[in-house]
Amino acid sequence: MLRCTTRCLASDIADQCIRVREASEFKQRGSIACIPCRRSKVKCDEGRPCLRCKRQHKEANCTYEDPEFIPSHMLALTQREDEAVDGRCLEAVHAPSDDTLPTSRPVRMQELQVERPIDFWIRSLSFDRPSLLREHMNSMGWPDRVLARHWEFGFSSKELMNIFVSLPPYLQQVTRRALHAVEIIMADKMEKKARAPQAKLLMESETASEHDLELERSLYRQQSFGVIKQHLHPSTGKRAHVYISDILCKIIGLHAEEALARIASRELSLITTEFNYLCYVMFGTWLYATSPGRPLKLYTRIRDLGSSGDTGCVVTRFVQQQEFDCHGRVRSMKTYMLPLDKEGLETSAEPPGSAAALFEKHMRGGKDYKTWMNDFESDMFAGETILGMQKSKQGMERLEALGRDLERMYHPFVEHAERILHREGQFNGMF
After folding, report:
1. CA dihedral of 151, 152, 154, 160, whole degrees rounded to 10
2. For residue range 215-227, what is the model confidence (pLDDT) as tens digits?
């Protein structure tokens, strides 16, 4: 073994001495066997063509490959670069998705955006980003607090906006007046409560504790129905936390990780038709305004987002329950979904003449179970979209019928809101 020169030792550059580098340099011996012999792992006489290829009459295949010699110090440099690349990729996984990669990297790698992953076993998620859709719809004149829980949940902003922006003039006027009336009444009640002296409770909190969330997970994990629980900040109505059960993930056809990721990004597609969602919003708002704390019960088709072509659906009994804090503000919304077959749907019908039966009639459009199921694909993408319904006589009749029933049901709220505005001197004939 060659030793380092005296001059290199004296200058403290022994590791760079040419003698040491040449002695330790890895010498790669190029393969001298032809390709067929090397693949067969047999000895080759190095002829061109070799004797073995001549015997097998494969002279045309007897070729040689001259490997490129790579010095050992270049191999070490390449390895260090690969380790550096791997380290930056790992940092990108744990960094915000807005970070960009260094410009010295190849263009293909610069365009790669790595998002923060969600734990595969997670079933709940907390949020802190505000809803841009809520601000946008509020600027367009739609009431904020009444519709906050719908804007805040995590459905696709574009799909939600299409429902309210596409309403025909008469139905849009009725819907706006109804929701604004409820908003005025809610604001009046909150103002009265704010003026009244209230004691600060020791255990008062705007967010659910981790212990409470873990108890919920343990309870809902054992149930045979689907559950979504949405926690809200009572003072602002913004979303704080959401839990989704495995059974509900099976109903909508998504793994919990994917469902939560879509909700977090506000990209979850609607799981029912636009017309059914509008009925759900208006009936739920009316019910919670008339009977706070009473559960909302509906029968609807839930879209299977995981099915091929997004054409599958499940008929479910949809039950939603509000939970309030100590000041009477909504702090969470619990939603249960129980799949039903034809017999289960027929035996669970709402009493005739009730508000629930009226909205069920609007949502089903007079169809029996089989027709209702078979028409889901056409209803989801055309027949029960707000714009699609305006293109047919039958669809316009359903929209107008819904508008008349909403005007009648919300009339007491409109009158009450007008009295509040008269009392405050703010009534100008419209709101």
Report:
1. 0
2. 566 655 666 788 8
